[in-house]
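Reply to dn_fold:

You asked what the input looked like. This is it:
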Amino acid sequence: MKKIFFILIYGFLYFPIFAQNNCNQPVSNFAFQGFKRDIQTQNGDNARLNTAKSILNNNCFGANQIKELAELFQDDFSRLDFAKTAYDRTFDKGNFYDVYNSFAYFSTVFMLHDFVLERRGGNSSNNNNNNNNQNNNNQNNPIFPNLLYPNAFGYVGQSRCNNPLSVNNFNLMARDVNVLNGDDAKINKLGEYFAQNICMTTAQIMQFSTLLQNENNRLNYLRRMYARSFDSGNYQQAVQVLSSNANQQNLVAFLQAENNNTPVINPTNPTNTPCLITDADFKDIRDRIAKESFNNARITLARTIISAKRCFNTTQIRNIMTIFSFDNDKINIAKFAYDFCTDKDNYFKLVDAFTFNREKQELMKFIDSKR
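and this is what came back:
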């Protein structure tokens, strides 16, 4: 993994830097902190991205500042969109490789690296004259987020349709959607598929939804496609594609109404089935989080799994916290996981996971504020 980063950085520094804008100096730290707050206080990645792009129009930033702003986004695709826009507004482009460290996955790093090389007039890692047609096809293939997609193989639960879309047909259709520009065009294409009464697995529906940038569009698509879902019993796992807690709760409430036609009494456990994560399932979850190479990826994955599974006890949450070395990461997970904990009366026990009193006191104040 270090070798890959070395190659990326070497290639990055090898090409000459061209002045592509009139960025004479980065904003002061005082101004930067104000801009950061403006972005951070927005609700959801789409709002953050719009605010960030507006700020970039009239200001220049240092590469380290761009990296810090990129870390405010929840998913790598929003981060990538921001980084591409920010490149021309970066004062010290020779240090832009620092921004690479804000990404959770190598695939997105390579996409940004190719973009930077193109801006500098170099050769992208996909540019090979002997394979242009193949590369064009590869570039049209979407790269889906690394989520916990449910497996519909052997599924015998509740179903809204039969004979889900084959893998080959799904890949072809996903590529056709991915090449379109903007959510409106993609929604129209997805609407054509819906009109054909095509049956899909929950995983396929989740992946299609991630091709939409606007989270409200994702939510609407998920609600619409529930009637076309093969493994409907897995559908609640689709909350993973939504970063806003409000939208996640909206989807859960929709599913509750569809299944029972009754109000949601407890949004964190919308069905009346026992809310628990078995020891075997938890081991798989913890191992998956721990094996991520980057801290950013661990946090993103942990938050995604916690919001999707929704039924962790304090012992399990504490166990997840021990994956992280620093108290600020642990407090991040502890606060996020509170709403998905099954035994909140024991939440105070998590203070033992912290090294410093500051975070212990912060957690106790947080718990008091939630009661």
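Residues 245-260 form the longest helix (16 residues).
Hope that clears it up.
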